[in-house]
């Protein structure tokens, strides 16, 4: 169904956000019908959403959870990390990629990124591995898949798992294989600015039955209901047991219905994002003073962000200039270890020079499916005007 009205998409004059959801009348109907039904929380819409999502991950099973952050926390729990373990992680990410590992008691070892894509460097990840490494956590920055095969090899050679934080890249693929079908554990976010939304929401995807079972358990308090796995199976039909602590990270039916409805438009969203990305590239590639985002051979990104690189220390001035024009640019991200919580643990600036250089130049231009070409041109004019080109 087409967008119902301009009002549901926000005005194009006035302030342009950098990201925005695209909610159709059909999405609204899907949510309303769940509200009218018998189940609000864990009913049939959860299993349906998980199955629908698996159609975009090459059939790899999904576990729906309440956010991308919850997905990471659950994925690390499934991997069994704890005190004394190390997680090698990209710093060019939202803090949750690292914070959720730290919350399990693991030590986060930040490894530097490639200078052009901002994705975890294979060599840096390999150099950061120790005998205590349990997980290598890569991020598909901006929606461009990381070097997943090489990173999986680095992880597996060390008896560790590859976790792919694919909060930006659901619907993308790498060397012909969909995101979700490559890493041992893949996590998604369905926050409104991401490639599809359930308001708050996320998912863990894994091809391993054991990792899926552990993820399902952690999502639901660690409850064991399967009699064959219980320590005291003869207690009674009501009986359930907790063998390992978990949390309540269950994504409710109401939001799963929204997710299933949104998934029907993921391909359309991806195409529109690619068009906007290409329009920016064409207009900005020749502008002196900026670099447009690269794309690796074999990468089929879902462009969640348009990360422009602003040279010569002018990023902040361009940010202020565009904000002054009502254009909602963003910066993604400060290196995760710059957060005072990591600084207080002894992490120091200078640790990952490529990530720091990337951060100093990065400026995310508005990018979301309902952005009109005229909105994109307004952003382009704003950038070109700044550089006088
Ligand atoms: C958005 C995001 C998250 C967290 O997802 P939420 O759904 O907001 O909790 C984690 N990692 C990355 C890279 C993200 O962009």
TrEMBL record:
SUPFAM superfamilies, per this entry? PLP-dependent transferases
- Modification N6-(pyridoxal phosphate)lysine, positions: 194
Give the molecular function GO annotations: pyridoxal phosphate binding; transaminase activity
Looking at the UniProt entry, the stretches that span the membrane are none
In the UniProt record, the signal sequence range is: none
Query: So which domain of life are we looking at?
Result: Bacteria
The reply on keyword DNA-binding is: no
Gene3D superfamilies of this UniProt entry?
Answer: Aspartate Aminotransferase, domain 1, Type I PLP-dependent aspartate aminotransferase-like (Major domain)
Q: Which GO terms describe its biological process?
A: antibiotic biosynthetic process; polysaccharide biosynthetic process
Q: Where is the active site?
A: 194 (proton acceptor)
- Which cofactors go with this protein? pyridoxal 5'-phosphate
Q: Which UniProt keywords apply?
A: Antibiotic biosynthesis, Pyridoxal phosphate
Q: InterPro entries annotated for this entry?
A: DegT/StrS_aminotransferase, PyrdxlP-dep_Trfase, PyrdxlP-dep_Trfase_major, PyrdxlP-dep_Trfase_small
Known Pfam families for this protein? DegT_DnrJ_EryC1 (PF01041)
Family, as annotated: Belongs to the DegT/DnrJ/EryC1 family.
Write the protein's name: dTDP-4-amino-4,6-dideoxygalactose transaminase
Q: Source species, please?
A: Amycolatopsis echigonensis
Lineage start: Bacteria, Bacillati, Actinomycetota, Actinomycetes, Pseudonocardiales
């Amino acid at each position: 169904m087409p967008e119902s009205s301009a009002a549901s998409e926000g005005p194009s004059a006035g302030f342009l956000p950098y990201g925005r959801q695209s909610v159709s009348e059909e999405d609204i109907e899907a949510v309303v019908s769940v509200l009218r039904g018998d189940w609000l929380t864990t009913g049939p819409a959860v299993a349906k959403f998980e199955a629908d999502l698996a159609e975009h991950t090459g059939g790899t099973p999904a576990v729906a959870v309440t956010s991308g952050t919850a997905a990471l926390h659950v994925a690390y729990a499934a991997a069994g990390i704890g005190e004394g373990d190390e997680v090698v992680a990209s710093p060019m990410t939202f803090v949750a990629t690292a914070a959720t590992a730290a919350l399990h008691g693991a030590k986060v070892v930040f490894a530097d990124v490639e200078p052009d894509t901002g994705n975890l460097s294979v060599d840096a990840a390999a150099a950061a591995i120790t005998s205590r490494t349990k997980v290598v956590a890569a991020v598909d920055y901006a929606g461009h898949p990381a070097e997943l095969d090489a990173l999986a090899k680095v992880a597996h050679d060390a008896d560790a798992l590859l976790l792919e934080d694919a909060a930006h890249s659901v619907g993308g693929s790498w060397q012909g294989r969909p995101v979700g079908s490559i890493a041992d554990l893949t996590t998604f976010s369905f926050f409104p600015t991401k490639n599809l939304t359930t308001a708050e929401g996320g998912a863990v995807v894994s091809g391993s039955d054991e990792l899926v079972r552990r993820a399902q358990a952690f999502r639901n308090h660690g409850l064991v209901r399967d009699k064959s796995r219980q320590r005291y199976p003869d207690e009674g039909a009501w009986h359930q047991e907790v063998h390992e602590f978990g949390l309540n990270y269950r994504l409710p039916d109401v939001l799963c219905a929204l997710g299933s409805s949104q998934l029907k438009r993921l391909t359309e969203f991806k195409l529109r994002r690619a068009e906007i990305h290409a329009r920016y590239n064409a207009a900005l590639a020749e502008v002196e003073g900026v670099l447009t985002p690269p794309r690796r051979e074999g990468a089929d990104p879902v462009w969640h962000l348009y990360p422009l690189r602003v040279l010569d220390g002018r990023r902040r001035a361009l940010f202020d200039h565009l904000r002054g024009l009502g254009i909602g640019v963003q910066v993604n991200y400060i290196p995760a270890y710059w957060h005072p919580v990591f600084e207080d643990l002894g992490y120091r600036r200078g640790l990952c020079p490529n990530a720091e250089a990337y951060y100093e130049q990065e400026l995310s231009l508005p990018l979301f499916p309902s952005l009109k070409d005229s909105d994109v041109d307004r952003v382009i004019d704003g950038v070109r005007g700044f550089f006088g080109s």
